[in-house]
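In these records, each integer encodes one residue's backbone shape. Here is one protein:

___
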Amino acid sequence: MGARASSAFWRQGESAHLKRNRFRLSLQRHPAGIFIEGIIHPPMPNPSIDLFQEAKSSDNKNSPLPVRMRPCALDEFVGQEHILGKGRLLRRAIEADRLSSVILYGPPGTGKTSLAWCIAHVTKTYYVAINATTSNVEELRRLIASAKVKYANTGRKTTLFIDEIHRFNKAQQDVLLPDVEEGNPILIGATVHNPFFSLVSPLLSRSLVCELKALKRDELLAILEAALKDKERGLGNQKIKMDKKALVFLAKTCEGDARRCLNALEIGVLTTPASKDGTIHFTLEVASDSIQKKVLLYDRDEDGHYDTASAFIKAMRGSDPDAALYWMAKMLYAGEDPRFIARRICILAAEDVGNADPLALVLANAALQISEFVGMPEARIPLAQAVVYVSLAPKSNASYLAIEKATQDIEENRVQEVPDHLKDASYPGAERLGHGKDYKYSHNYPEHFVEQKYTRKRVRYYEPTQMGFEAKIKQRLEKLRASHGPKK
């Protein structure tokens, strides 16, 4: 709001009330624009100005691209279909204007602030935003009092957005409880931490808790393309020639963070000199400079991906942990899904280490589960531990070769019928069919073993090696096979 508009608004308030009431305005600058906070002492008629629309339009052109592109309608919001899809609880609550308090938690750049802004616009409430790191109890009480006065004079509620709400201590959170329960202000808290560990139980019980997920690559591409086309809020009025690979690079390297994506796009456009015809060429090199990340020859759909993954697997198989770590670091730097890497480690632990060191598969599986739980960048640590262990473990592909032989036998030869004594004998009538007859229960015999046929025709697939723990397995297997007698 400019000085002229501000003074006009002041004159309007003073002439309307003829010094019967005190009327104080404070202008607060916020990343989303300038917010007007009016403390109105009753009695006072409804003001004619729309504070939310004023805040929405003020100084918007000078705001960063992520702020300008904040959606004003739920259909404009990209991602988070699990909570905002058609028929989902949060969307129904917003559209029915029955939202009282909500806690949004998730990684940075997933839309927590944008969703709060969108909710305030959809529900036509006043919007006030604060950050818990710089706020205090006095400010909270003042804002809550202001929300009550606004509602009494205008009939409109206030949406109070508190960023990093986990930074509030117990006393500060308790201040919110009575008024949050009454629904004015409508509290929207945002945090990157699990609220069940950082917020008090009474506040959680009064709130709808929603987890936001990191945005997918296609969702980030949709946000970038919308910013390039939008002439009112985005970059649509500029002549930009955008390389598809540059957009994909931004979407892939931003790791689900829309804010980082849009900031990189804007800085790339603003800092790249235009050609003679006024066109800004946004290339892969520009994208790399904008996000300060090296471009690697690595693509999930091309040779770079498959060649690097192949080198990674072969280095582990060849017992070279350093080379394996190098190729894994390259994949992670290029934005590869850590789950893809973890699955490759698990497969190799079973295929190439096998029973030479059975713990290799256990450790690989643990790395897979832990990497999914902690996420990047910490996931690289358990993955590295698994890579080193699997690389240096004794190797045996005997189990892999055994299943290959068994599969080939099934494909090429007549499939054997299950012997009668091994068939299920748990249902009525099985005994009359001879199922289970003469079956020998191994635990009833010395050393928990008894000679018995388990296929109609003897088969032999598994041939253990002398490597690591498999040498002990080989010794036991040879003893058991000898007790079975000659192959028939």
User: Anything to note?
Assistant: The first strand starts at residue 23 and ends at 30.
